[in-house]
Write a structure and sequence with these properties.
Elements lengths: L1 H9 L6 E5 L3 H4 L3 H7 L10 E5 L2 H4 L4 H7 L19 H7 L1 H4 L6
Parallel strand pairs: 1-2
Amino acid sequence: MDYSLSQAFQSLNGISQVLVLYDIMCQYGVHLQDWFCESSYLTILNNLHLKIGIGIWHVNGHVPECFVHYAPLFIEGVGHVDREILETPWSSLNEVSGSTRGMSTSH
């Protein structure tokens, strides 16, 4: 996760604000900027304004304090955003996954 973010931050080309939503941002994001500044392998731009949050689908499973601090609904300039579109239909997709399970070279 750290390396992926570092690479993404390096290719912003003049963008000064970034929103990073992560399922466990209440734990991961606490010292995120400190980790990047202290690491010789990770890069974060000095003038980058980083906004952190948890996707609305996952934040509902957290404690109430997380909802108030990390829900996109309460982050200025973000509003209502759903980035969990691939995870919400998993229970339905599990029913049809058996048809693709044996699709390999040996089958």
